[in-house]
Structure formats: structure tokens, C-alpha cells
């Protein structure tokens, strides 16, 4: 009997990576080297067509890492959002070539962000958010259904990662992706 191994046709499971938050003011050279090394891995994943979800609290170093991963290719409308009464729309037709990053993704109007991301087939890009559950609440998680995902958590402080909370947060995103996939 001839048996063949077939790739799974089910939903892809994201790759998870937890790293310590960046503190460039405390150890500038060390933190720049660490960010550079991590950026090399992230760029490889982006070139392989992965979407990288970069999750970290305010001042955890998301933008610091993005500036090394996708230099000059960062979309950031958070300043506009702070000055305006309404959130800016996300327009996928104006995006730079891959790889690129969307910093503070929740600054964009949720429906336009989800619709724009759904159009980005096989393009590697980074989405930076402060909380992973924001993706489920905004509808953006459903737009990521079927895409290769890598979730990078920037851990703040010296506390160990709360694995149960991490699994619960990821389950929320997985459930949202399955809901409309």
C-alpha cells in the first residue's frame, strides 16, 4: 500500500514568540544589537509571506523594533488620530512595497483596516498593537484568516509571561478568525 503524507488543509496555527521589551535608554548598544538580531528573524518571516503581529504595552519598544525591521516603511497615523475627531481610513492601495509595518494599527478606522488587510494576499507585513484582543474587537482578526501568522509579544518588566492569559488572548483571535473564515 502506497501512503503519502498530505499537508494539513485545516487552519494554520500561528507561531508564537515572547521577548523582553526594549529599553534603549538603559543599554543603548546592547538593545540596538538585540533589536537588529530580532529584526533579521522578522524580515525573514516577512519575506516568507508571514504577517507578524507585534503586541506590546505602550513604551515596550514596538516602534523601536519596527524601525529596524522595516526602516522607512512604517505606516503610523497615531499622531493624526490624536489631533482629529475621527480615525483615519486605511487605504491598501497606498501601501509601500513589502515588507512594511502598520504601527499602532488600532488608530485606523476598524472597518477600513480589516478590509485593507483582507486585500493583502501573500504580502508580508507587521501589525503593531498594544493588546491582541484589539484585533478581535475591531474585526481585523477575521481579515487575517488563512494568512501565515507570527505573534511576537514584547514582555514588560521582569515578570514571567502569564501563559494562561496569553493562551486566552490568542484563543480570542483564533475564534474570531474562524468565525468568518
Can you tell me the residue ranges where pLDDT is under 50 for at least 5 consecutive residues? Answer: 1-10
- Measured between the Cα atoms of the first and last residue, the distance is 36 Å
- The general outline is globular
Would you tell me the structural class of the helices and strands? alpha/beta
Biggest β-sheet: strands ordered side by side in the sheet: 1-6-2-5-4-3
What is the H-and-E element order?
EHEHEHEHEHHEH
Separate helix tally: 7
Radius of gyration in whole Å, from Cα? 17 Å
Helicity, as a percent range: 25-40%
Question: What does this molecule look like?
Answer:
The protein has helices at 28-47, 62-69, 78-83, 110-118, 133-138, 140-143, 163-180, and strands spanning 15-20, 51-56, 74-76, 100-103, 125-129, 149-155. The N and C termini lie far apart (36 Å). The protein contains seven helices and six strands, in the order E-H-E-H-E-H-E-H-E-H-H-E-H. It has a six-stranded parallel beta sheet with strand order 1-6-2-5-4-3, with helices on one face. It has a single domain, classed as 3-Layer(aba) Sandwich (Rossmann fold), CATH 3.40.50.300. Helix 1 packs across helix 2 (62-69). 39% of the residues lie in helices and 17% in strands.
